[in-house]
Design brief:
By secondary structure, this protein is an alpha/beta fold. The protein folds into 3 domains: 216 residues, Cation efflux protein transmembrane domain (Alpha-lytic protease prodomain-like), CATH 1.20.1510; 80 residues, Alpha-Beta Plaits; 84 residues, Alpha-Beta Plaits. The protein is 63% helix and 15% strand. The chain is built from 11 helices and 6 strands. The strands form 2 sheets. Strands 1-2-3 form a 3-stranded mixed beta sheet, covered by helices on one side. A 3-stranded mixed beta sheet has the order 4-5-6, with helices on one face. Helix 11 links the parallel strand 5 and strand 6. The longest helix has 30 residues. The relative contact order is 0.09. It is a multi-pass membrane protein. It is found in: Membrane. This is Cation diffusion facilitator family transporter. Belongs to the cation diffusion facilitator (CDF) transporter (TC 2.A.4) family.
């Protein structure tokens, strides 16, 4: 209810930047308030775990600030030096936040260890304890708010913040339990809970690093988007097959894709070019991507070609590492002919020179056992999806 009220009140333009800016401001204000409250509780109760949790909230506030700057910089329009825009700056801002989170966690591991070796009594008080419980409820709401906005604008940074806030619910709950336990236990549980909280903070930082590094390193595309592109291209007339789909990520919601489409070789070039142009234009608009389609003409009306392809597909089934074949064509006159095609190798198999030579030699041998007059010219390919 509160999330909807905030969006209705402060979102004047239904843009990705507006939602990102609102979520960042909410994160900064909420986490700053929680930092002040928990720092006060930590000082009053002399609890290192509460203090560690307070600075965890401070790092979250800083994260929201950097996320806001990331949204601002990432929204800069494309220019001569960056023709696809500045969207990847959002990932870089997330990377900075991730390292800051790890540093905070490491520092409080040291402080918590010192508390174990040099115990200090924890003073349980009712009002500070109630404040900790209220902070847990606040973090639950913040997690749901970030998740809602993150899904709405497809922001991995905000969705990561949602999981981070949910993790804070766990750490704050542990802190609350340690405060209660301190009433009856002389054992330095506060220091051990502080280490637990700090390790969780560092794990959150590691998870955030992985989350932001993957798109920068070129992670595989979302399978749902891949299916939409493939099925979308195949839905157009005369396109009988697709392969070699490659996608590039230039920031959240900014993708460029290229794909090869197999079309009959005997169709009018002007006619199929019009179809390909329309497919590029319509799918780019519908899927919010930049799509480029390359035409691969294939012979679909020759009985000998189709029969050879059927036999080759049967041979390929004996090779588990070959996931598919494409661009099949037959070249030559008379009895002697070349079968030219590409095979796609499972990504788990390293493409060593020895492996490539062996599989090409083995396929040629299998083909010649059936048709001695055929010679296979094979290109080894990868599935980038």
């Amino acid at each position: 209810m509160l999330s909807q009220l905030l969006i209705k009140t402060f979102i004047k333009k239904d843009t990705r930047d507006s939602y990102g800016f609102l979520a960042s401001i909410v994160g900064i204000l909420t986490n700053s308030l929680l930092f002040i409250i928990k720092l006060f509780v930590g000082i009053i109760t002399k609890s290192i775990s509460v203090t560690a949790d307070a600075f965890n909230n401070l790092s979250d506030a800083t994260s929201s600030l950097i996320t806001m700057l990331g949204f601002k910089l990432a929204s800069k329009p494309a220019d001569k030096e960056h023709p696809f825009g500045h969207g990847r700056l959002e990932y870089l801002s997330g990377l900075v936040v991730s390292f800051m989170v790890i540093i905070v966690g490491f520092e409080f591991i040291k402080s918590s260890y010192q508390r174990i070796t040099n115990p200090v009594p924890v003073n349980f008080q009712t009002i500070p304890f109630i404040l900790i419980l209220l902070s847990i409820g606040t973090k639950i709401w913040l997690s749901r708010f970030n998740n809602y906005v993150g899904k709405k604008i497809n922001s991995s940074a905000l969705q990561a913040s949602s999981y981070d806030a949910l993790g804070d619910v766990f750490t704050s709950s542990c802190v609350a339990l340690s405060l209660i336990a301190s009433k009856w236990i002389s054992f330095p549980i506060d220091g051990y809970i502080g280490i637990l909280v700090s390790l969780f903070i560092m794990y959150s930082g590691y998870s955030l690093i992985k989350e932001t590094l993957n798109p920068l390193l070129g992670e595989a595309a979302d399978p749902d988007l891949v299916d939409k592109i493939i099925n979308g291209v195949l839905s157009y007339k005369y396109i009988t097959g697709v392969h070699d789909l490659i996608m590039h990520n230039y920031g959240p919601g900014k993708f460029m894709a290229s794909i090869h489409a197999e079309v009959p070789q005997d169709i009018s070039l002007v006619q199929i070019h019009e179809i390909i142009d329309r497919a590029e234009r319509e799918l780019s608009e519908n899927l919010n991507i930049v799509l480029v389609i390359h035409m691969d003409p294939i012979n679909t009306n020759d009985e000998e070609v189709n029969f050879a392809l059927e036999e080759l597909e049967k041979i390929i089934k004996n090779y588990p590492l070959i996931t598919s074949l494409h661009d099949f064509r037959m070249v030559g006159e008379g009895e002697r002919k070349n079968l030219i095609f590409d095979i796609v190798i499972d990504y788990k198999q390293p493409l060593t020179e020895e492996f490539q030579c062996n599989i090409v030699e083995s396929l040629n041998k299998d083909i010649k056992n059936i048709h001695p007059e055929y010679n296979a010219i094979i290109t080894i390919d990868r599935d980038f999806m």
